[in-house]
Structure formats: structure tokens, C-alpha cells
Automatic annotation (TrEMBL):
GO terms for molecular function: S-adenosylmethionine-dependent methyltransferase activity. GO terms for biological process: methylation. Residues 69-169 form the Methyltransferase type domain. It holds the Pfam family Methyltransf_11. The lineage of its organism: Eukaryota, Viridiplantae, Streptophyta, Embryophyta, Tracheophyta. Belongs to the methyltransferase superfamily. Keywords: Methyltransferase, Multifunctional enzyme, Transferase. InterPro entries: Lys/N-term_MeTrsfase_sf, Methyltransf_11, SAM-dependent_MTases_sf. It comes from Pisum sativum. This is Methyltransferase type 11 domain-containing protein.
Length: 398
């Protein structure tokens, strides 16, 4: 690409301004209808991507693959030509879908193209064996917009993947993107991180990384497998250092969770059991996501011991911000029972916030949590009383 071509591309990119705007993308794809690769080129992606897909069943021609935010990248074309013909491409730009359909209808007749919002896709649960994202999540995660769109999109990914299916996220691995990936796929997902080879250059540049997560039907917390080595890293030192630091911190979090004596349950595992109140019971579980909420949460459900005075509340929700979560009162089992006694609630649901909730307001959190905690309410609520919400900023609660 010559200097004039580079300048023209830079000018085109500046027309986008907001990577989450449909109108901006329609304008971009109208001005530049030919293919455009945001991150790594196919020669660098081919070997790691095809090696990964070959581990999945069924065989290539029958493996259903979703490519969200496909744009005018040729990634799907290359996969199709490699034998993966059951590909569905999604983008919210009608302009680019029309262009790509016209370009491929004769040479790749089995490939499907859909105009659709990647944060609210119209497919059945467990529809795909692989979801391949080339920069889509990065585009949604505009720092000034917060993680809301990213959370919605990843909830869709979790919903649409078949058990044993894999989500392949090609990303620049910025810290705010890694935060949402690590926290969203922490429970019941295997994860690995690898660097995509790139052409050696005298100038430091941003490198593409491949984050792969595999869907399990379990509550196991796995360590993230790092496939990085110094010879594969051609990026600037700041990008490499940030990625290694994020990996180390996340694996420490996962080690703490996996070595805990607490068993992490899903709502589905314990919902029937929790319809009845049981004195002194304490269960740790995950709430949300999987298409039923914007965020996912870690929670502890505690049923109070018998007391002489009647309980003021049949059930209450106590929200612990990330900055307060390490405190003994909220982290330890003994401290949590102290909070229960102070709450005067027969059942207390302690909800712990993390980095994925950073830019959400408390009202947004409560709205998102309300239908989830309703499912944890004991049946003994003949009066129809509402479930109160408080945060630890107002301790003692209620």
C-alpha cells in the first residue's frame, strides 16, 4: 500500500468516529465497498485458525459457524474455500451485507448473509459450533460508552454456542476488552490466549491476539492457558506487558476461586432447592447472562439462623462494590453471617460487583438484578412484600 493509499484509508477511518454507529458504518462501506482487513491478514490467521477448527465436530462442511460484525472482511470467504461451507455472516449494515452477498452468491452459494444487530441476534439457543469474531468486540467496547454493548454481545455468544463449541475472539487485547472477556467466561469455560504472527517490522505496532473460549456445562473455574512466547510477540512493549499483567492477575483470581471451599452453583442448579427456607444454609452461585440479563454476577445466598424476634424482611439484596469485596466483613464466611444478623432478613442475597459492572449505575444494576433475585425468593412470602436492595455504603443494611 503506497503513501497515497494509506492516507486515503486514514481519511476513511476518520469518517467512522463512533464504531458503534450504524450510519457511520453504512457511510464507510458505501465509500469503500472493496474488502478491508482490520487486523491480521489470512496468511497469518490460516494455520492457527484452521488447526483450532479441526478439533471441533462435526466435519468442516457441517460445522455451523457464526461470523458476527463480518463487515467486508474476506475471512469468511477464506474459511469457505478451506471447506467450512456452513457459515452465517451477520452485520447491522445493510450496505455491506448487500455488497458481500452480491460478491459471493455465485462462487460461494451456501454462505448466508443476515442484516442483524450482534447484541440481539435472532437465532435459536445452541445454534453454532463456533463463533469467530474479528474485531467485533473491540469495536463495541468504546471506552466512553462503557461495557453495556459488550456485555449484551457476549451474552448472545454464550447463548448461541453449542456445548463444546468455541468462541474465537481476534482482538488487540486492550485492558478493558480483556476485563470483560475474563469475567464473562470465568465460570465453566476453558480459555487460552495466543499471539497471531505478524510481519517483522522496525516500527512497534499493535499485534492481533486470539482468545479462545470453550463452552462447558459445568461450574469449574479453569486457569487461562497462555500460549504466548517471546518469539511470537512483535507488538510494542506496552501492549505485551499489559497483556501479561492482565493474564497474571486473572489467573490469580481464578486460583483463589478454584481453591475456595465454596462450590459455585448456577441458578438452574439450586433454584428448586431455594424455594424453601433452610436455617443456616449458605450457597455461592452465579446469576445472569446467557441472554437473560445484561450482566452476570457472583452471589452468596444466606438463610438466617432462628432468632427470637420476627424477621423484618423475608428476603433482601445486599450489593457489594468491587472496591469493598476484599474486606473481611464481606469476603469471609464469618463476616457475611454478621451482615445477615444486622440485616434482619430471613434470606440475604449478597451480590458482588466486578470490573464488568464498572460503568453501570446502581439503578441499572438493580434493574438488571431484579428479575434474577426474584427467582431466589423463598415461597414463604404470603404478604407479597417487595425485595429491598441496599449496598454496603449504607451498612448496617436495611
Amino acid at each position: 500500500m503506497g503513501p497515497k493509499s494509506k492516507t486515503k484509508t486514514t481519511d476513511l477511518l476518520q469518517t467512522l468516529e463512533d464504531f458503534t454507529s450504524k450510519d457511520n458504518w453504512d457511510n464507510f462501506f458505501t465509500i469503500r465497498p472493496d474488502s478491508f482487513e482490520w487486523y491480521a491478514e489470512w496468511p497469518h490467521l490460516r494455520d492457527p485458525l484452521l488447526s483450532l477448527l479441526q478439533t471441533l465436530t462435526p466435519p468442516p462442511s457441517s460445522l455451523p459457524i457464526l461470523v458476527p460484525a463480518c463487515g467486508n472482511s474476506r475471512l469468511s470467504e477464506h474459511l469457505y474455500d478451506a471447506g467450512y461451507t456452513s457459515i452465517t455472516n451477520v452485520d447491522f449494515s445493510k450496505v455491506v451485507i448487500s455488497n458481500m452477498l452480491r460478491s459471493n452468491i455465485r462462487s460461494r452459494p451456501l454462505m448466508r448473509w443476515r442484516v442483524m444487530d450482534m447484541t440481539a441476534m435472532q437465532f435459536e439457543d445452541d445454534s453454532f459450533g463456533a463463533v469467530i469474531d474479528k474485531g467485533g468486540l473491540d469495536a463495541l467496547m468504546e471506552p466512553e460508552l462503557g461495557p453495556s454493548l459488550g456485555n449484551k454481545y457476549l451474552s448472545e455468544v454464550k447463548r448461541l454456542l453449542k456445548p463444546g463449541g468455541k468462541f474465537v475472539c481476534l482482538t488487540l487485547a486492550e485492558s478493558h476488552v480483556l476485563d470483560i472477556l475474563f469475567s464473562t467466561f470465568r465460570l465453566g469455560w476453558k480459555m487460552s490466549v495466543d499471539a497471531i504472527p505478524s510481519n517483522p517490522s522496525n516500527k512497534p505496532s499493535l499485534q492481533t491476539f486470539m482468545v479462545v473460549v470453550e463452552k462447558e456445562l459445568s461450574t469449574t473455574v479453569h486457569q487461562i492457558t497462555s500460549l504466548l512466547h517471546n518469539t511470537s510477540l512483535h507488538c510494542n512493549s506496552e501492549q505485551a506487558l499489559g497483556l501479561r499483567e492482565s493474564l497474571q492477575n486473572e489467573n490469580q483470581v481464578r486460583e483463589k476461586l478454584s481453591s475456595s471451599s465454596d462450590t459455585l452453583y448456577s441458578l438452574e442448579d439450586v433454584q428448586e432447592e431455594l424455594t424453601k427456607f433452610s436455617q443456616g444454609r449458605r450457597l455461592q452461585l452465579t446469576l445472569g447472562a446467557q441472554g437473560c440479563s445484561v450482566f452476570s454476577y457472583r452471589a452468596v445466598v444466606l438463610d438466617a439462623e432462628e432468632q427470637s424476634d420476627p424477621f423484618t424482611y423475608h428476603c433482601g439484596v445486599f450489593i457489594v462494590p468491587k472496591i469493598r469485596a476484599p474486606e473481611w466483613l464481606f469476603f469471609s464466611e464469618e463476616g457475611q453471617w454478621m451482615v445477615v444478623r444486622s440485616s434482619k432478613a430471613a434470606r440475604l442475597i449478597m451480590v458482588f460487583l466486578d470490573t464488568s459492572h464498572t460503568n453501570a449505575t446502581m439503578d441499572e444494576i438493580k434493574k438488571d438484578l431484579s428479575p434474577l433475585v426474584k427467582q431466589l425468593e423463598p415461597n414463604e412470602n404470603e404478604s407479597g412484600a417487595q425485595i429491598p436492595f441496599v449496598s454496603c455504603t449504607s451498612f448496617p443494611p436495611f
